[in-house]
Structure formats: C-alpha cells, structure tokens
Amino acid sequence: MSKIDFTKEYFTMKEEEAIEYSKTVLKFFQEDAELTCKEIGDGNLNYVFRVIDKKNNKSVIVKQAGPVARISDEFKLSPDRNRIESEILKLQYSLAPGLVPEVYHYDPIMNCCAMEDLSDHEILRTALLKHKSFPLFADHITTYMVNTLLLTTDVVMGHKEKKESVKSFINPELCEISEDLVYTEPFFDCPRNDIFEATKPLAKELLWDDKKFILETAKLKFEFMNNAQSLVHGDLHSGSVFIKEDSTKVIDPEFAFYGPAGYDVGNVVAHLIFAMVSGQATMEEGAEKENYINWTKSAIKDVVDMFKEKFNKLFHEKATEKVAKYEGFKEYYLNSILRDTAGVAGLELCRRILGLAHVKDITSIEDKEKRTEAEKFCLVVGKKLIMNREVMLNGDSYLELIEECKR
Ligand code: SR1
Ligand code: MG
C-alpha cells in the first residue's frame, strides 16, 4: 500500500512521487526493483518523468500535465489535455503502427499517462543540433502523416463517426495558444513577442507594414479555426519526434484537434528548414557541412513528394465517400493540403523568430551577425511561402524558393 493517495485529488508530482506512482498504481516494476527517477521534460508545457529499474533493465515514462504552462504561467491550461494526448496516441498507434509510442495507462485524476520509454532514441532537434542526418526520416514521417491525416478525414471515415471524433477531440485551450502564438502575435508589435533586437526593423518593414501579407495570415488563421479536415497532431516540430537511425516515433500530440491536414506537414517542412539554416550558420565549411546541408534539402523535398505519393496511393485504396471519387477531386483535395502546407511552413518560420516560443536551432547561433542573418532568411522564406502557397505543389518548388531567397 502506498503512503500517498493518488486516487483522491490531483497534485503535481515530484520525482519521488513518480517512483511511488510507478510502483503502486502502475505496478510496472518487479518487487526487487531498484528505482531511480529523473524529470526530463524540456518542452514548454508538461512534466516528464523517466523511472528506471537498473537491476532488471526496465523503464517507463510518466507524463503529467500541470495546471499552467512551464514556459509562462500566463497560460492556464486544463490538465484534461493529457486525456486528449493519451487517446490520440492510442488511436495513432493503430493508424500508424511502429511510428508512435505505446501508451500503457491513463489516469484522469492525476492527469498523467504512462508510456513506452524511448531512451534508445533521441529527440530529433537535439540530434539535428549535432548535425546528424537520418536518411529514413522523410519516409517514416510521411507514412505517419498520410496515415493519421487521411484516415481521419471524411474521405475515409463515416461522417457521423467522424463528427463524434471531432467532438471528442475538441481542444479549445491549446488551439487558442496556436491561434495567438502562430497566427496573430508574430504579425504585429505584440508585447508578448520576443524579438532579437537586430531583427525587429525587418519584421516591421517586411511583415507588419505589408497589408497584403497581413491579410494572408488572417485567411490562414480562419482556415486553421474552421477547416475540421483531419485529426492533426497540432505541434509536429522536431522536438515532438524521437529518432534513431532506423526508427522514428512521434510524441506529444497534446495540441491535437480536427484541423487542416497541412498544419502538420507544414510544421515538419519548417523545422527541417530551421535545421538547414542552423547548419549553414554554425558549421565550418567542408564536406561534413555540405553533406549535412544536402541531407536537410533532400529531406525537405522528400517530405513533400513522398507525402503526395503516399497520399495518392492511400486515397485510392481507402476512400469510401462516393463524391470524393469523382474525377479531379483527389487532385483538388491534395492541392488544397499542399497550399496549407506552404502557408503553415511560412507561418512557423516567422513565429519561431518573432513570437514567444523560439527554437534552439536559431537561438543557439552564438555569433550575433550570423544569427541575425539566419533570422532574416527565415522571415524572407516564411513570407514567400505564405504569399506563393498556391504554387508550392512539389518538393522542388521548396528548394527553388529557398535558393531564390539566398540571392
Ligand atoms: C505556451 S506553449 C508554446 C509553444 O510550445 C508548444 O510546443 C507549441 O509549439 C506552442 O506554440
Ligand atoms: Mg510539445
């Protein structure tokens, strides 16, 4: 019997309590286990405990949602997001086998879940900061995206069942964060923005003062809020991916909701662009740099092209909706996802430079001039992607746009 009562009232756990929880509630370990625990969360919102039994070589992850975000207690968030995350992980585990960790347990009182420990993997962003490349990443992540996105649309699902799913994954608080931090605040001089001093004049001249551009960000915001197309991950950046050479696992879908499928694809593309920009700014000239930059570019191209190819195939195999099979519909539908992909990639590139939540790829560039140059490049590429989103229909169009922005 535990001295701590985990069944009555929610409280935020410390490492010792996570050990006790794993023993008495999860009953995950053997009697003779020698347990240690470390809080390893490095995201903006939650607490992540890794509990290890060295003696029997077993481990588990306990992830708990706190009542406020770690990045700032301005964000008061319902810990129910942990339910959304657990349910979605379970659903995605069946839609995209092998590409999502296994969830063992969800606890609606402690607002935590227990899942497979992936400590033989590494967070993709951390690996990219060490300039490691992953030739299978584009293949894995496009399988994950096509399966989780297309199989949750009205093209495939029964429409009543899909509407039930939309209801159960309604996620207003986390969506509000994205509506504010991705779609609104970066595009005016908002007090909550966190802008590198040398970048601010360009933000004003290139983005804030351009009314045509600002209008496009508004259109994209309404697309995000009103297009309940697919069950999206909602925060698919390189910190939400665990990776090793031959395996990719997508974690952290707490921002998930029914939104535009291109939201996920655009995030993946944007964070590969951040990795490329970071490598350009920080690596010494030579073969290692050339290989790494070439890999980031091929990954950008492959993500778009493989997504298209697999989407077309799965659509053909799984579409159930009669009208979705009319000639020309698949092309129309896929092109609208590609348009959203480019728009979201552009927004993400701008918001991680100007808004509240940054990315290490850029903030770890120590040389001030190089960081300013990198930030400006992201803004220029971001704006172009948003303004040209209708014609960003294949991987090469991304590489061409990136090259144009270098000139
Ligand atoms: C208050 S949360 C800030 C950011 O962290 C998350 O990972 C999302 O990207 C969010 O926008
Ligand atoms: Mg996260």
Automatic annotation (TrEMBL):
InterPro entries per UniProt: Aminoglycoside_PTrfase, Kinase-like_dom_sf, Methylthioribose_kinase
SUPFAM superfamilies according to UniProt: Protein kinase-like (PK-like)
Superkingdom, taxonomy of origin: Bacteria
GO molecular function: kinase activity
Entry keyword Ligase: no
Residues annotated as signal peptide: none
Keyword Transferase among UniProt keywords: yes
Segments crossing the lipid bilayer: none
Domain Aminoglycoside phosphotransferase: 227-271
Enzyme Commission numbers on file: 2.7.1.100
Keywords annotated in UniProt: ATP-binding, Kinase, Nucleotide-binding, Transferase
Pfam assignment, any one: APH
Gene3D superfamilies in UniProt: 3.90.1200.10, Phosphorylase Kinase, domain 1
Entry similarity comment: Belongs to the methylthioribose kinase family.
Assembly and interaction partners: Homodimer.
Protein name as it appears in the record: S-methyl-5-thioribose kinase
Origin species: Clostridium malenominatum
Gene (name only): mtnK
